[in-house]
Amino acid sequence: MLKDWLENEKPREKLLYRGPSSLSDAELLAIFLRTGVKGCHVVELAQQLLKNFGSIAAIYRATEKEFCQHHGLGVAKYVQLQACLEMSKRYLSEQLQQGTALTSSQATRDYLTSELRGESREIFAVMFLNNQHQVLTFERLFFGTIDAAAVYPRIVVEHALKQQAAAVILAHNHPSGIAEASIADKKITKRLEQALSLIDIRVLDHIIVAGNQCYSFAEHGEL
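^ that's the sequence the OP posted. Answer follows.
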């Protein structure tokens, strides 16, 4: 039983004593759930959910029906979970909007991961920046299937001009979870780089989001 645990080993107390990074996925989920169900304390319930869904990311991706069909969960918890996810996205977005965030490649990756991880189809997006590399806007421009999305340089150029951007960061996801650039990825990156250079807009990076991993063209010397 949870009440038999040492006081500083209970999830909430452990977070206060050691910080949130010290908690396991099940312990973090247990804090969100707050209570267990009859015959199953909250950490056991969290462990069961992680086993059934496979990961925290999969729990976030679950539809209302998929989420609520599990014992101990309901609409109220589903709404709370979606609110937590949206707050996380907005926090990361605000960090980028402050203007200093793009000095940190990790902040950019965190934001793009929160936006594109878990999507079941390929999505190609662009982050438009001003001449101080502050974020003007983030737009999802092209939507495809599980393994491909058609990308048109003309559309990207039109949006860049509309935003009066000075630079861009390209991004797309790999639903397969493979954090590598394909030949097609490299070709479209080169085409976009050439098209945008004609209007003096730099491509700072192209980031591929694959689950919790990212592939950076800039870091691999491909830009």
